[in-house]
Design goal:
The protein is of the alpha+beta class. The protein is built from ten helices and 15 strands. The strands form five sheets. A five-stranded mixed sheet has the order 1-7-6-4-5, with helices on both faces. The protein has a four-stranded mixed sheet with strand order 8-15-14-13, with helices on both faces. It has a two-stranded antiparallel sheet with strand order 2-3. Bound molecules: acetyl coenzyme *A. It comes from Allofranklinella schreckenbergeri.
């Protein structure tokens, strides 16, 4: 019998501190930096984001989300035989955030590693976990996206610091004899590495370069719309499906204009797009599983429905996965 991988539970976690556009604008104004709620809403759709406290690392957010996903799947930590965390804001250089999450959950012994593909990270991690389950090397995987992007924001740069937030989302992916993950399509092109990057690094105890996010927003915007469309079409093609077979689009929540423009290209009406960017901001690798969990818990996405997830991120990376819930 053919083995598939299927999402059997979802979970998410947002740090309690919610920061509205106005609160952020007031904070920036104290440093003489001008922005407004109106500008941020009009250009991005974002109204608020959550910021973690300085002593709350990605692993903490990830562990909360993972526990919720395990509970939804009716599983416990002992059942888990694979942990993949997608993050660009790991707790430390090493060990991996996944190893730390494994310890916090008490799921000792199973393989645990991080995937670093920035905002495409969750799509990449789901693709890897699906392949491992179908190959028979895991049966119950935790696939998590977790970020504390507030740590790498330059609060003197209004073109980027208003866009991002912190959070985590998780799914339990299990071996199944009924279809779950139907197809995926992932890519990277390092020629575009500098349009979205954090150039700093550590050398001999010193930080070399600036460890803060830099982005050419317009270049990202232009590239994102075309690549997302291509990846979505490729994933659907591989699954033998067309747009009309898709019940929900769960896009990376970066900017409402990118999300709606992709939906238009895919001929999906706006009411079939899951939108959380207004409340979460861009949480990078966490954004897709956060949005997925939100849609599952609010009853939008139901068992048996087909969901197309897609994202772009630094690298430049991009990809799409189509799943049957
Ligand atoms: N508040 C007020 N004014 C601002 C702000 C701000 N926060 N930021 C920029 N502006 C100003 C600019 O200085 C500029 O002023 P000027 O005309 O006097 O020079 C004006 O607003 C327009 O700036 P643009 O950069 O042209 O604005 P644009 O409409 O392109 O929107 C944005 C900028 C929102 C960043 C957009 O380009 C975008 O969404 N890009 C994609 C970003 C994205 O999706 N990133 C995530 C990728 S995933 C990942 O891996 C992290």
């Amino acid at each position: 019998m053919q083995t598939y991988s299927k999402i059997t539970g979802t979970g998410s976690y947002l740090p309690p501190k919610r920061v509205t556009n106005q609160e952020l604008a007031d904070r920036l104004a104290r440093d003489g930096i001008e922005t407004s709620d109106a500008w941020i809403v009009e250009r991005t759709g974002i109204r608020a984001r959550h910021f973690a406290e300085v002593d709350t690392p990605s692993s903490e957010l990830a562990t909360h989300a993972a526990r919720q996903a395990l509970q939804a799947a009716g599983r416990s930590a002992e059942d888990v035989d694979l942990i993949i965390v997608a993050t660009s804001t790991p707790d430390m250089v090493f060990p991996s955030t996944a190893s730390i999450v494994q310890h916090k959950l008490g799921a000792y012994g199973c393989p645990a590693f991080d995937v670093q593909a920035v905002c495409s990270g969750f799509v990449y991690a789901l693709t890897v976990a699906d392949a491992m389950i179908r190959a028979g090397s895991a049966r119950t995987a935790l696939v998590i996206g977790a970020e504390v992007f507030s740590r790498i924001l330059n609060f003197k740069d209004r073109t980027t610091c208003v866009l991002f937030g912190d959070g985590a989302g998780a799914v339990v992916l299990e071996a199944s004899d009924t279809p779950g993950v139907l197809a995926s399509d992932i890519h990277a092109d390092g020629r575009y590495r500098e349009i979205l990057h954090v150039p700093g690094t550590v050398c001999g105890g010193e930080v070399l370069g600036e460890p803060l996010l830099r982005m050419d927003g317009q270049a990202v915007f232009k590239l994102a719309v075309g690549l997302l469309d291509k990846a979505a079409r490729a994933a659907l093609d591989k699954a033998g499906l067309t747009f009309s077979d898709v019940d929900w689009l769960v896009p990376h929540q970066a900017n409402i204009r990118i999300m709606m423009s992709t939906a238009r290209k895919l001929q999906l009406p706006p009411e079939r797009v899951v939108v959380t960017v207004h409340e979460h901001g861009n949480t990078s690798a966490a954004s897709i599983p956060l949005a997925l969990d939100h849609a599952v818990r609010t009853g939008q996405i139901r068992a048996g429905q087909r969901v197309l997830m897609e994202g772009v991120g630094g690298g430049f990376t991009w990809g799409a996965v189509v799943v049957q819930m």
